[in-house]
Amino acid sequence: MATARILETERKTTQSGRAKAGKWTLEFESARPQAHDPLTGWVGAADTRTQVRLAFHTKEAAIAYAEKHGLDYHIVPAPPVKLKLQAYADNFR
After folding, report:
1. How many other CB atoms sit within 10 Å of the CB of residue 24?
2. What stretches of the chain show up as alpha helix (H) in DSSP?
3. Domain 3-92 has CATH 3.30.160
4. Where is this region: Disordered (predicted)?
5. Which of 8, 25, 43, 78 is the most exposed place for a label (fewest CB within 10 A)?
6. Which pLDDT tens digit goes with each residue over 3-27?
7. CA 42 to CA 78: how far, in whole Å?
8. Where are the domains of the chain?
């Protein structure tokens, strides 16, 4: 059975807005480890499901999709945003 990871889209540190925050992504996990190709030196796998990413507006929609298609899943919430507030003059100390 395929395993999926449901991730909350995290806000980038360079963004101040919240337009893309709160979106959820479903990614498939690889069942087999990646193999090293001796000819090219690249690392890859025969499983192409790991390249698929599905976007959802809510966590419940992503969970419903996984359950409808019989996928095992686990949820990975976004890490909390840590703000370091300081005065401009602190840059020159």
Report:
1. 23
2. 59-68
3. yes
4. 1-22
5. 43
6. 899 998 877 666 667 676 778 999 9
7. 30
8. 3-92
